[in-house]
Amino acid sequence: MKKIISGLATVMIAGIAFNTTAYAGQAMSEAHAHIGHVMTSWTDTPSQHGLLPVAMKEGEIAAAHAALSAKTPDNLAAMKLHARHVRHAIDTSYEGSGPGTGYGLIRAASGGIGHATLASKSEGASDAVKLHTEHAVTSLNNAIARSRMALYAAQAVLISTSASQAAPHAAKMAELTQAVVDGVDHNGDGSISWHAHEGGLKVANQHMGIMMDAEGMKR
Predict the structure, then answer these.
(1) Domain boundaries, the chain
(2) Beta-strand (E) ranges in 54-182?
């Protein structure tokens, strides 16, 4: 990575010395490439979809199975089955198989944070890119934090020895995974913003979309 950055620095210096206009266009292309990785296509995701769409798909799967777990409070085996499905959708290192895409929400969301941040730090990145990167990244961090809490709830379900012991954890898992997707109106103002403790994957997607519109990029 250091070698890559060093190489980019050399190109930047050369561009400034000989053709600043051409370099500015190149820099914006770099920002757009990273935005594309978040929203449109990435090399190692299922079907090479964008990192954020993959995270959203995994989040929807996790929320659906957490809800199924919570709907069977008298059936310990069912709660445990769906808790394993939730774990697979969130982080495949905890559960190797299940109904998720096989990529994992946390991995996809973390990758989205990385590429959005690279876009905002690209030389010549617009104010819109910088502003909405902050909004999207904060929301993605919220989603990751809640996903980790959902993993704890899933583990609590899995180690329970009775349905009555597991049921409250299944309900919490359902609450957390839905918040991963939708976010939470933490301050009670009637809306869900991008701020810490509020926005989730949907808010991150909204702000990445605003960014793409501002940059004239196709969604």
Answers:
(1) 2-214
(2) none
CB 46 within 8 A of CB 70: no
Q: Is 8 a residue whose pLDDT tops 80?
A: no
When pLDDT is cut at 50, 70 and 90, the band that residue 218 belongs to is confident
Return the exposure string of 165-183: e unless at least 16 CB atoms fall within 10 Å of the residue's CB, then b. ebbebbbbbbbbbbbbbbb
User: SS3 of 50, please?
Assistant: coil
How far, in Å, CA of 157 to CA of 168, rounded? Answer: 9
C-alpha distances (whole Å) from 195 to each of 28, 185, 199 are 27, 10, 6
Beta strands in the chain, from DSSP E residues, in sequence order: none
Q: Are 169 and 135 in contact (CB under 8 A)?
A: no
pTM, 2 dp: 0.86
Tokens, residue 42: 């990435």
Question: Tell me, what's the pLDDT at 50?
Answer: 98
Q: CA separation (Å) from 36 to 59, 91, 201, 218?
A: 20, 23, 17, 10
From the number of C-beta atoms within 10 Å of its C-beta (0-12, 13-18, 19+), residue 21 rates as exposed
Q: How far is CA 41 from CA 46, 54, 108, 156, 189, in A?
A: 10, 10, 12, 36, 35
* Distance (Å, whole) CA 206 – CA 132: 9
